[in-house]
Write a structure and sequence with these properties.
Helix content is 47%, strand content 18%. It is α/β, with parallel strands linked by helices. The protein is globular and about 60 Å long. The mean pLDDT is 94. It has 14 helices and eleven strands. The two termini are 38 Å apart. α4 (76-88) crosses α5 and α11 (262-280) packs antiparallel against α12. β1 and β2 (14-19) form a beta hairpin. It has helices at 22-31, 43-48, 50-57, 76-88, 103-115, 129-135, 173-190, 192-206, 210-230, 245-254, 262-280, 285-295, 308-316, 345-351, and strands spanning 4-7, 14-19, 37-42, 62-67, 96-101, 121-126, 140-145, 148-155, 160-164, 328-333, 336-340. The longest helix is centred in the middle third of the chain and has 21 residues, at 210-230. The protein binds adenosine-5'-diphosphate and zinc ion. The site of zinc ion has 5 residues, from α11.
């Protein structure tokens, strides 16, 4: 099995590598520069891997910086604390930022790296399955505003993504399960064979068989890397990564980001998108049935959309659709997707009845 995936972005190309031990990798990067390095993580990750982090904190040019838990950490305030700390410690253009955590750590550490001295290099060490298969690839960095998530940020590529799957041993079951939404999504939109692999290995995946999980992560990285390499700045092709996300994002806002994890909302969003693909698009009944069967294997918290009209307003407010037509991602078949401008808000409302 390949343990490296290249993200091909010309001068900004880098490798995603499966590694055995993040500590060795951090040591290697820290010793590659004379300058200061900032390792950014969160307290609970630090506590779970205390021995390794304590060991790393003994390296003379490694500084550890802890950010808060949750989306509130993605703020201007914490960005300012990070860059102030870097300036205080005399970080320079050859300094490195090492982001060890899930999406929250990756987004803010990447953003801070992108603006300090107009940009220093950073490395992603994703510790959640979601970050391993999705957020650490593609260079999206950013913070939230009161008006919405990720409204300030940049596309700024890391110089490497280093994946140590041992981190997954401590990831709560619910987080792992939710992240599988993005995994399944890659099969749906891009790769029928990968979809079949997930169907055949679902028990192994849920039991955290690391060989199977590494294969799954490698496949996801290859697919995402293929898509972002074609389309770094999110024009056409990259939009298919939004499969299940138009309705999924609306579900997250409708439930005030309190009830569901991102992946759980995306599972629901994909159910609706499959319904629409079957009823108003080209997805045949067999593929539809098989897709629904796979989705039914994942546990989800209950969801009650009592007022569909209010819900639709959340769909209309998605920042991606400022124009009149929604650009909705449909499946033509398992493994093949496209952007459609023919889906109406009434049809979306109808699809909610499948939930
Ligand atoms: P993502 O967006 O990647 O799902 P977040 O950054 O929101 O992840 O992290 C979700 C939660 O999981 C946070 O509380 C984070 O500190 C915690 N976490 C991250 N990695 C691990 C891990 N390997 N083991 C246990 N908890 C983790
Ligand atoms: Zn997503």
């Amino acid at each position: 099995m390949a343990n490296k995936v290249k993200v091909d972005l010309g001068n900004n190309s880098y490798n995603i590598t499966m590694i055995e031990d993040f500590k060795d990798s951090v040591k290697r990067f820290a010793s590659s520069t004379e300058s200061q390095c900032m390792l950014i993580t969160q307290e609970n990750i630090f506590d779970l891997y205390k021995n390794q982090f304590n060991d790393l904190s003994n390296i003379s040019n490694v500084n550890i910086f802890l950010i808060d838990e949750g989306e509130k950490a993605k703020s201007f305030d914490s960005t300012i604390s990070i860059v102030n700390e870097m300036a205080d410690k005399r970080f320079d253009r050859s300094s490195l930022v090492l982001a060890i955590g899930g999406g929250v750590v990756g987004d803010i550490a990447g953003f801070a790296a992108s603006i300090y001295m107009r940009g220093v290099k950073y490395i992603q060490y994703p510790t959640t399955l979601l970050a391993m298969v999705d957020s650490s690839i593609g260079g999206k960095t950013g913070i939230n505003l009161e008006d919405g998530k990720n409204l300030v940020g940049r596309i700024y590529q890391p110089i490497a993504v280093e994946i140590d799957t041992n981190f997954l041993s401590t990831l709560p079951k619910r987080e792992l399960n939710a992240a599988l939404a993005e995994v399944v999504k890659y099969g749906f939109i891009y790769d029928r064979e990968f979809f079949d692999y997930i169907v055949n290995n679902i028990t192994e995946i849920n039991n955290r068989n690391l060989d199977v999980i590494q294969e799954v992560i490698t496949q996801c990285c290859e697919i995402k890397s293929d898509i972002v390499s074609e389309d770094e700045n999110e024009d056409e092709l990259r939009m298919i990564l939004n499969f299940g996300h138009t309705i999924g994002h609306a579900i997250e806002s409708f439930t005030k980001y309190e009830e569901l994890l991102h992946g759980e909302a995306i599972f629901y969003g994909m159910k609706c998108a499959l319904y629409l693909s079957n009823k108003f698009g080209d997805l045949n009944n067999d593929d539809y049935k098989e897709s629904c069967q796979l989705l039914s294997k994942f546990d989800l918290p209950s969801l009650n959309i009592d007022n569909k009209d209010i819900f639709i307003n959340f769909v209309k407010n998605d920042k991606k659709f400022r124009g009149e037509n929604i650009r909705f991602i449909l499946l033509d078949e398992i493994g093949k997707s496209r952007i459609s401008e023919d889906i109406s808000f009434d049809q979306i409302k109808e699809s909610l009845s499948t939930l």
